[in-house]
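G., the chain you wanted modeled:
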Amino acid sequence: MRKIRERIRKIYRKHTPSVKVPLIILMVMFCMIPLLVESRILASSSRQSQVERRIIDVQNQCQILSNKMSRTGYLTNSVVDNAAIDTELSLLSDIFSGRILIVNSGFKIVEDTFSLSKGKTLISNEVIRCFQGENTSRYDSLKHYFVLAIPIPEFEQETGTITTGKTAGVMIVTASTESMYSLEDSLNDKASLYEMMIFVILLILAVLSVHFIMKPFGSLIASIRRVGEGNLDEDVNEEAYRETKQISETINKTLEKLKAVDQSRQEFVSNVSHELKTPITSIRVLADSLMGMEDTPKELYQEFMHDISDEIDRESKIIDDLLTLVRMDKASSGLSCSQVQINGLIEMVLKRLRPIARKRNIELIFESKRDVSADIDEVKFSLAVNNLVENAVKYNKEDGWVRVTLDADHKFFYLKVADSGIGIPAEFKERVFERFYRVDKARSRETGGTGLGLAITKSVVLMHHGAIRVDSVEGEGSTFMVRIPLIYIP
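Predicted structure as tokens:
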């Protein structure tokens, strides 16, 4: 059974139906179902109305004949001309395709238009109720006939009037409605033909309508297909409907991000090549200079070797930072979170950086509004804090300051690193977190920066489901603000 289901799924995936098919089916159904229901209701109502009219018609005809039988004394044989009444009874039964029985007060059948039950006794519920002065009727919808019981009132010879409330006999009328059903079946056949014609017309109209409705989506798919083939510069623009407009806008925004990512990737590759090539070029120049010198003084030799060592250290730092970023970018790279006392972690980072700050007489200040404990990856978060504070020290002024502030609420903790440094021009603030991006490339190389520190910091913050932003005024300093949840939810 499972294999059959899997096979069906494979076939369905291979032959995925178009949305046009259900749309056409729905449109035809929404048009045909009300039409069919209405026609069936009208047919049923018409049939019921015809049956009721037939019953009323038969009842009126028989009531007239009943009064005539009463006046002529049909049941008492006081009048000789019974043959005329019998003829009328026979004619009436033929007209309505039925049968008429005349029952006297002794429950004897005195006349039967079928000549089958004359002289027999007939006692039934309809007859008894009719002798009590009540007209009764019963309709059998399965066999398509109805039965009427009509009282024949007594006639007073002396007064020449019909006696109210006294019944001399009963007329039992059985009439068929089969002819009405035959006519109805014929009409239904014609109606079915018309319904089929309407169905075909609706199907054609539905196909044309759906084709017209889906045409903008076809254009949208064609545009997306061209983009998928590599033409990222083409804008997807289909504004026939609100939905296609929203899809177009979403796709265009996605394309803009893809272009930005592609451009960033190209810049990243270019920057990586440049950053890795620069130390190697310096080493090559220094080495060639040494090899081209004869009788190189020991002091000059040591100076060149010291410069080569610095370039190697710089190359090694770039590679280490790149490897750190690669490890963080891997999908499998997770966090090893535990409950950490954030105050102690920051104090430890500042302790490591104070010797660097003293060289330039920069004061490191730590302000803790409260004790904070949170779920973090201690190693990665220490690296992020270290990068922020180290940058604040490196890009500061002599005799400046760096202030680290820690605060928290019921959901997040907040870390703020402010400095009195050189600041960041407004047009560059959005790009400081990009890899290898430097506001002042010459100064960054002098301070030993690789251009990857803030990119690593942002990656660590995002891994903790946090956020980071920067406020800065050129020449007045910068403030980096970090917000991270107290509880880490994978």
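The chain has a mean pLDDT of 79.

Shout if anything looks off.
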